[in-house]
């Protein structure tokens, strides 16, 4: 028996060495390593498993932790460095646990009482081999995560999927701290063991998720829904078809929509993504991942809401979540991506497809709503793009609230289900589709997605520099409703209605809040910062020294007056930032005897503006301050604050800025102080004036506000010249004037005269109370209308102002 055990262990070690490669997941791994150097660590594992133990041993050797198989010597006694929470995985009880664990902990506690210098630590370790998640084929809520696996079965799965596992290290627990807080009370370890059991159960759920229902099982569940049964009856009645035909139509819609998760597809796609992303990006910068783990541990249903820049977005997010040991989400994808073979692959990876518009199709909207509700009721994470589609300009698009409304309705139906939204900012130094976006804005027809378009796009693949994924501040829907609508629970009638009177307004407010949080998590990179500097310069070129000065100015503004605590600002110097930007081949360098000239090629201006727009919101207030100072040269502090406060409400709404009106004075004080520190201006008593020796930096900063100010001036000029103008007339005329200004004065931003963006801006101005609609007529209502136009017209070049006013007056 002894020899057989040695042979078994030897063979097991060989198999694990060959087949097992686990990712270490821990936010405090370095503190664990440091604690291990100073004192001894005891590893607690959930279940007795020789495979897990040897896997842990291999991992500890790689990362520099103590070997779990080497005993600890305490007070002349040898104790094992590892303990299993339970002796067996097939017997679980609220009160039964491994007695050896209790004895070891009690002995260690007593040793700490006798030896004041002793300070040992406990670390909980979970080892999860991510083999195929069992599918619930019968609709029964069976817990299969802790089934007893035979040795042969587990070895087979380790051999097949051992390279797809995760080792989770918890925060370290100091026994000295426990002894200091609870003394010699031995019951504390009973509580600790219970807490550890809960931790391990939650950890496994975080890693493997809930049971996945097969498509057929989900189909049966949805067809049994009272809401869908009613919709089928209404479909048969309204279209005068048989009940069987209406049901058949419903089944077709469910099959068109639903995902079909496949672990095998996930496993092989991960291998392909790992290789391809390594070729495409120098680095994938991730921030805020700990937030998701904390929320997942609490058992919340998670909704991921990223901004949408590229088709790479959903692949990148799923890849990151998978490598952080989290369950992959169900992803709402546009029906345009449901083409062979991509559609089938995406279904295997968790995509469910929805149409761009429901076109009054009540049956379809009911099926989509019930499908989404079913996902939330089972606790599955869900991901969708709140902008509806990819941004063609680089700015955040106005949010689409359809699926967000369904999310809130699902929470109201499942009154106890806690749903937390995770806003996600995604940024790139190169967006694959950026040239096609520019062409579409110029009037080209959008190319339809298909296999051949993907194959053609492969030839353009190269190294795209850095990519950024920042997980922003979470938004708990329950906490939001408790704060904003305290009586919301009383207004819910689960039988008669799922649409309380406050719901629509709440959804729009939540959507705006999410967009603000996405912008709060923006990432500065070398490309968007260099484009911002060069786009405002004469001939789109600057000497290297001046460009470095401008980059330094931008970096200091963001570091000393942070846009938000979630924003990502590079820690490297402006010189290194510029060198990296030049390596991306977006810019040209002209050799010069005195200093190199960095040039933004004119044929690339329209494309590269996209990257500037990603971070434009972070610099718009400093740019507005600079514009006012450049125009006035010297101005009273109160007048500067007044002018900014007049324009700010429109900027706030259009660019999803996070400062409230009450916070604006403090922000302006901080920015003026920082700009004074940098030598850009000087403040004497109540006056602020320009410092002429660095005025060129201020002028370049001011150009960042010109496009916005000119667009606002166009709309307000139309309102001033035509007090009773229809919404359509404002839209048409503002677009016409913007096009003329663009042609006459060389505005390269295509979004400057994009009708969709101008319409959104018109809505924003109306929403801010500057005009009121009545019988489709827009009446200027706000008493400050003339004042704000005076401010705007004063901040734009005189020739542009004259052109705008001339076209605004023309009928």
Query: In terms of per-residue confidence, which ranges show pLDDT below 50 for 5 or more consecutive residues?
Result: 1-5, 89-96, 136-149, 775-781
The fraction of residues in strands falls at 5-15%
Q: Based on helices, strands and strand pairing, what is the structural class? A: alpha/beta
Overall geometric form: globular
Supply the CATH class of the domain at 278-520.
Answer: Alpha Beta
Helicity range:
40-55%
Biggest sheet statistics: 8 strands, mixed
What radius of gyration results from the CA coordinates?
31 Å
Query: What is the second-level CATH architecture of the domain at 278-520?
Result: 3-Layer(aba) Sandwich
* Average pLDDT rating: 84
CATH topology of the domain at 278-520: Glycerol-3-phosphate (1)-acyltransferase
Count of strand segments: 27
Number of helices: 32
**Oligomer state of the chains in this structure:** single chain
User: For the terminal residues, how far apart are their CA atoms?
Assistant: 100 Å
Family: Belongs to the GPAT/DAPAT family.
GO molecular function: glycerol-3-phosphate O-acyltransferase activity
GO biological process, one term: fatty acid metabolic process
Subcellular location: Cell membrane
Could you provide a short overview of the structure?
With 811 residues, the protein is of the alpha/beta class.
Index terms:
811 residues, six-stranded mixed β-sheet, alpha/beta, disordered N terminus, 27 strands, globular, eight-stranded mixed β-sheet, 32 helices, Glycerol-3-phosphate (1)-acyltransferase
Characterization of this structure:
This protein has 811 residues and is α/β, with parallel strands linked by helices. Among the domains are: 11-208, no CATH class; 278-520, Glycerol-3-phosphate (1)-acyltransferase; 705-809, no CATH class. It contains 32 helices and 27 strands. The strands form seven sheets. Strands 11, 12, 13, 14, 15, 16, 17 and 18 form an eight-stranded mixed sheet that branches. Helix 1 (2-19) crosses helix 3, helix 15 (362-377) crosses helix 16 and helix 24 (605-632) runs antiparallel to helix 25. The model is unreliable at 1-5, 89-96, 136-149 and 775-781 (pLDDT under 50). It is found in: Cell membrane. Pathway: Lipid metabolism; Phospholipid metabolism; CDP-diacylglycerol biosynthesis; CDP-diacylglycerol from sn-glycerol 3-phosphate: step 1/3. It is a peripheral membrane protein.
């Amino acid at each position: 028996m002894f020899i057989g055990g040695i042979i078994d262990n030897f063979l097991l070690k060989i198999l694990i060495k060959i087949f097992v490669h686990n990712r270490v997941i821990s936010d405090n791994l370095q503190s664990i390593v440091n604690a291990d150097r100073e004192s001894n660590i005891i590893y607690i594992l959930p279940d007795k498993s020789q495979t897990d133990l040897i896997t842990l041993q291999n991992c500890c050797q790689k990362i520099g932790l103590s070997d779990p198989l080497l005993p600890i010597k305490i007070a002349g006694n040898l104790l094992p460095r590892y303990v299993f929470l339970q002796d067996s995985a097939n017997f679980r009880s609220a009160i039964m646990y491994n007695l050896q664990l209790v004895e070891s902990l009690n002995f260690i506690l007593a040793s700490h009482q006798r030896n004041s210098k002793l300070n040992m630590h406990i670390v909980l370790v979970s080892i999860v081999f991510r083999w195929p998640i069992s599918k619930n084929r019968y609709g029964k809520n069976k817990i299969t995560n802790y089934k007893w696996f035979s040795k042969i079965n587990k070895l087979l799965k380790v051999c097949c999927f051992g390279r797809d596992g995760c080792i989770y290290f918890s925060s370290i627990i100091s026994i000295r701290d426990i002894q200091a807080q609870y003394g010699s009370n031995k019951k504390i370890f009973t509580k600790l063991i219970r807490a550890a059991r809960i931790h391990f159960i939650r950890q496994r759920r975080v890693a493997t998720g809930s049971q996945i229902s097969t498509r057929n099982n989900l189909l049966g569940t949805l067809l049994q829904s009272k809401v869908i049964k009613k919709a089928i009856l209404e479909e048969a009645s309204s279209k005068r078809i048989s009940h069987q035909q209406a049901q058949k139509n419903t089944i077709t819609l469910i099959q068109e929509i639903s995902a079909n998760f496949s672990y095998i597809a996930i496993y092989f796609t991960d291998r392909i993504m790992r290789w391809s992303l390594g070729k495409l990006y120098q680095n994938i910068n991730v921030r805020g991942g700990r937030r998701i783990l904390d929320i997942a541990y609490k058992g919340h249903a998670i909704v991921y809401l990223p901004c949408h820049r590229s088709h790479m977005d959903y692949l990148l997010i799923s890849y990151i979540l998978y490598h952080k040991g989290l369950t992959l989400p169900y992803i709402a994808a546009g029906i345009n991506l449901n083409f062979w073979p991509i559609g089938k692959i995406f279904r295997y990876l968790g995509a469910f497809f929805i149409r761009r518009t429901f076109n009054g199709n009540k049956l379809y909207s009911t099926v989509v709503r019930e499908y989404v509700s079913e996902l939330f009721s089972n606790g599955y994470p869900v991901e969708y793009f709140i902008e509806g589609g990819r941004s063609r300009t680089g700015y955040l698009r106005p949010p689409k609230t359809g699926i967000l409304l369904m999310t809130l309705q699902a929470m109201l139906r499942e009154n106890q289900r806690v749903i937390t939204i995770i806003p996600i900012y995604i940024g790139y130094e190169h967006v694959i589709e950026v040239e096609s976006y520019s062409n579409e804005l110029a009037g080209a027809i959008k190319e339809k997605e298909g296999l051949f378009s993907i194959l053609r796009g492969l030839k353009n693949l190269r190294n795209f520099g850095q990519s950024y994924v920042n997980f922003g501040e979470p938004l708990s829907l329950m906490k939001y409703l408790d704060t904003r609508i305290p009586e919301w629970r009383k207004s819910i009638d689960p039988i008669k209605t799922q649409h309380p009177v406050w719901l629509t307004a709440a959804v729009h407010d939540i959507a705006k809040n999410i967009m603000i949080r996405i912008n709060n998590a923006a990432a500065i990179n070398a490309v968007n910062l260099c484009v911002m500097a060069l786009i405002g310069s004469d001939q789109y070129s600057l000497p290297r020294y001046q460009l470095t000065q401008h980059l330094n100015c931008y970096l200091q503004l963001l570091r000393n007056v942070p846009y938000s605590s979630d924003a990502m600002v590079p820690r490297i110097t402006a010189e290194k930032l510029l060198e990296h930007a030049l390596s991306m081949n977006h810019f040209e360098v002209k050799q010069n005897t005195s200093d190199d000239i960095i040039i933004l090629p004119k044929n690339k201006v329209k494309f590269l503006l996209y990257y500037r727009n990603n971070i434009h919101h972070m610099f718009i207030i400093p740019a507005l301050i600079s514009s006012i100072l450049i125009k006035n040269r010297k101005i009273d502090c109160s007048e500067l604050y007044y002018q900014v406060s007049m324009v700010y409400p429109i900027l706030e709404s259009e660019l999803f800025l996070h400062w409230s009106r009450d916070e604006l004075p403090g922000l302006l004080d901080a920015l003026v102080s920082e700009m004074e520190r940098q030598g850009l201006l000087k403040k004497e008593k109540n006056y602020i004036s320009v410092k002429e020796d660095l005025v060129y930096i201020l002028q370049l900063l001011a150009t960042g506000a010109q496009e916005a100010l000119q667009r606002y001036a166009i709309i307000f000029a139309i309102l001033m010249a035509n007090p009773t103008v229809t919404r359509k007339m404002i839209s048409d005329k503002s677009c016409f004037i913007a096009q003329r200004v663009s042609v006459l004065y060389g505005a390269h931003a295509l979004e400057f005269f994009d009708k969709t963006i101008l319409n959104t801006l018109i809505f924003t101005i109306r929403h801010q109370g500057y005009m009121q609609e009545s019988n489709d007529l827009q009446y200027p209502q706000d008493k400050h209308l003339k004042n704000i136009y005076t401010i705007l017209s004063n901040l734009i070049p005189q020739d542009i102002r004259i052109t705008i006013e001339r076209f605004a007056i023309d009928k």
